[in-house]
Amino acid sequence: MALPATPPSPGRLVVFQSRKGKRCAACRRGPLSLLVLEDGAPRCLACADLGHLVFLPRGDTALTRRSREESTLSVVVVRFNRRKSRYERQGVLVEEAALARAEERCLADAEARRRRRARDARRRTAEDERFTAAFAAGILRLFPGCPAERAAAIAAHASVRGSGRVGRSAAGRALSDDAVISAVVAAVRHVDTPYDQLLMAGVPRHEARRRIAPAVRGALRAWREPGEDVG
Questions:
Q1: 161/167 Cα distance (integer angstroms)
Q2: DSSP readout, 133-194?
């Protein structure tokens, strides 16, 4: 299929990517990977006074936009898709200095984003530490006999960000008594009873919970009294 004489975007400079191995009608240079159509005849970029531009492939929207902002002259590069019977953008031609300036702007933005991510990470870490401490305090309020280091471990496990555990539920974030108790029960079940071993042995979950329920109740009862230490 021959290239059409009319560019796909009338009134705008357009450069074509060609698979036909055409030669420039003026200087006979070729085969041309990029060409301009003038009166239906192919011209190389040099003969079309576009040889000073550099090609920026599509893909980085911010870099493309900024390169065109920085460049006095910019040209859209298109290629004909035979299967879809339409032209598709492949990138732009811009001034080399403009591309360098655009890259500097994008790098500055990337650095700003990196610093913002670092600040956000520090903020989230501080928030998590405060929340975990508050959750541990909630455990000790309800279970004053629980060792402080055990309360801290339960709180840290229950409140891991993104874990979906009870500490991250709405009730957990509100430090409701039910959420705190649920976290303690889960910790006792997995750490202080043979619950996990029963599951590994093939005991159904509800039956395993029934078997270890007395041990869980005993642990909670002991921890409700100040000065008691379970396990």
A1: 9
A2: HHHHHHHHHH-TTS-HHHHHHHHHHHT-TTS--GGGSHHHHTT-HHHHHHHHHHHHHHHSSS
**Model confidence pTM above 0.90:** no
Contact criterion met (CB below 8 Å) for 175 and 131: no
Q: Exposed/middle/buried for 179, CB within 10 Å: 0-12, 13-18, 19+?
A: buried
Among 127, 125, 126, 132, smallest CA distance to 183 is for: 132
d(CA 176, CA 183): 11
Residue type at 223? Answer: W
pLDDT at 229 over 70: no
Residues 50-77 have pLDDT tens digits of 989 999 999 889 999 999 999 999 999 9
Q: How far is 136 from 150, CA to CA, in rounded Å?
A: 9
pLDDT for res 116: 83
Helix (H) or strand (E) holding 132: helix 96-142
In this prediction, residue 4 has a pLDDT band, given cuts at 50, 70 and 90, of very low
Residue tagged 């070729």 (tokens): 30
